[in-house]
Amino acid sequence: MQHKLTQIAVEMGLRFQSAFSIFGLTICPYLKQFCADAVLRVFAYVTALQVILCVGRDCLLAGDSCSSDETCSPRLRTLRQCVAGDGTVKLGPGARSQCANAVSALLSSPLRGCQCRRGMKREKNCLSIYWSLYQSGIHGLNLVESYPYETVEKGSDYVRLASITADSDLGLSTANRCLDAAKACNVDDLCQRLRTEYVSACIKPSGKSGLCNRSRCNKALRRFFDRVPPEYTHELLFCPCSDMACSERRRQTIVPGCSYEMPEKPSCLTQMRSCRADYICRSRLAQFQYDCQPEEQSASGCKHGNYAACLVAYTGLIGRQKHSIKSVLFAGSPITPNYADNTTSNVAPWCTCSASGNQRQQCTEFLDYFTNNICLNNALLMFGNGMDHTPTPSQTDRRIPVTDRDARNSSSGFVSMDTEENIASPTISRQVKVRE
Fold it and tell me: Which residue numbers delimit the GDNF/GAS1 domain (predicted)?
């Protein structure tokens, strides 16, 4: 809504500018001072409207606006002390009351409703402003109720494969969508460049250890999924497979051996807590929990009925890690989900609840968001089936819209394994060799 209002404000400014240019050529020579004042007032109004709309939408702009305001600035400083560890101790007696008052006042400022964009410059700074206001410990906000990113429009159709729109130029077919996805990425400059970049970063040995650089690998993965349009990234990651070789290549898309796998699976609770301690990872997790929130009574299986948004939120978790200084090998990713096996809808993060003790229920609830989530399950299966992402209430069989067996029976026209592997692999330097 705010984005549309901003566009309207810009259009108003252009129309006023055009109108007053004509007005100035005809009447203004006789009323110079009056016209000049009128033009200045109108331009000032339109500019102010644009600034207000932009500030209310961007947390960085809203934070700058608040910091320069003598009334808002001290409240923002108070709030930052409240959320900074033992901030209540620094504030002294009555700290909780001061924090509550600061939050209440700032919710009436341009900070209210501000958002950030995934992959934006200074993303962490933007998110720190958002979470300062919506810190769950102070404001009681549940992660599933909101998240700081701009929402994916419900009409966005990421369910259609990229090759459908490009087949006239590339000569692609839908017989093997994983192969088509690789072809489509290879002819797109941005997709091909960033895919080559992350594959190279994830398979190249680092120093004398011979191990990959996990931090560099995840950074390259984040760049790929944040900057390349979903019509390419989703086709590469969620394309349907009808044989084991294809399924394994699909699982290897994000190079699990470097990006997240460790000798032993860590606790899911440890991953969750580590993620929530990082502004960006916490925000991606909040987006995933919101957009993939299941609801049995919904025709789609999703509370918000948007498969596209769910898949965008899922990919936002890939490559999110909490760095460890101790060892590159154990600097794992807190969440990074991937295929647990060769089944289309069986995805999970690299973690376990086996040693969660009396917190087993909390751990299982977190893991179930990936492994037993009707919304995510349907989003993956419907994408693989190439179906529209907005089911009608009459579609009652929500749990299993299409099975892997159905996909095997309906697929045809396979290319040879050598050809498929060559096309599916991005062009990388000959010096870079995959470790066996």
Answer: 59-138, 178-258, 268-375
Using alpha carbons, select from 62, 137, 128, 154 the residue that is nearest to residue 99.
Answer: 137
131, 202: one domain = no
Q: How far apart (Å, rounded) are the C-alpha atoms in residues 368 and 429?
A: 40
Residues with Cβ < 8 Å from 299, sequence gap 6 or more? 305, 391, 392, 393, 394, 395, 396, 398
Residue 97's domain comprises 2-145
Q: Give the count of domains, the chain.
A: 2
Same-domain pairing of 204 and 350: yes
- Phi/psi of residue 311, nearest 5 degrees: -70, -35
| 339 and 418 assigned to the same domain | yes
- Residue that terminates a domain, selected from 145, 178, 208: 145
With respect to residue 429, please indicate whether it lies within any of the assigned structural domains: no
Name which of 322, 344, 348, 346 is nearest 334 in CA terms: 322
Q: Give the burial class of 349: count Cβ atoms within 10 A of its Cβ; 0-12 exposed, 13-18 middle, 19 or more buried.
A: buried
The residue type at 238: F
Do 90 and 133 fall into the same domain?
yes
3-state secondary structure of 245: helix
Give the span between the Cα atoms of 127 and 125, in whole angstroms. Answer: 5
Specify the pTM.
0.72
